[in-house]
Amino acid sequence: MQAIVTGYSSGIGKAISEILEKNSYKVIKLKSRLDDTKALEKEVRQVLKKDDLSVLINCAGVGIFKPHEEISIDKIQELIDVNLTAPIILTNLCLRSLKKTKGHIINISSIEALRHSKFSALYTATKAGLRNFSLALFEELRRADVKVTNINPDLTKTNFFDEFNFEPSDNKNAYLNPKDIAKAVLEVLQFSGVISELTIRPQRLEIKKK
């Protein structure tokens, strides 16, 4: 079985890639930048010429949390391109192949898609867009037997927080590990029905400032 996982080089994407490889999936690691649409299209079409796709996991994501007027136009475009436009385009490119295999699309959104946090307007907009794209696409693809799942992880201990002035606390009950999300992804793929949406949260809510 062949799978495309974006964001495979670190964090949740890396953990997902590793668990899929341990379970007989061939993980295709795209080299094109997600915001380079033409290069991305060319590479995906080349991949799909060789073999059909069983799984597409849109996991790559970037974030920023600050007053909206302080965010540069380039950064606004980057978040929209990586978090929302790229998954929509990748789904478009892969869908005919996924219909052949009766495959599965999993979009890694965020807990922020479900709430409205201070200084998160841009990030929330992209993740809420991805979530609603997923849920609407599920309805569209039911008759085609292509499964669609949206996953909303809460605070996960990864390098996602490297550039921010906050991060999860050291309390192990206040954050998720990437492997937790990866295990959930595998369970979703192995489930006989369809888990159209899954929200994964730690028991406690605690963050610390750097």
From TrEMBL:
Pfam families: adh_short
Membrane spanning residue stretches: none
Origin superkingdom: Bacteria
CDD domains: SDR_c
PANTHER family (alphabetical): 3-OXOACYL-(ACYL-CARRIER-PROTEIN) REDUCTASE, 3-OXOACYL-[ACYL-CARRIER-PROTEIN] REDUCTASE FABG
Family that this chain belongs to: Belongs to the short-chain dehydrogenases/reductases (SDR) family.
Protein known as: Short-chain dehydrogenase
Species of origin: Malaciobacter halophilus
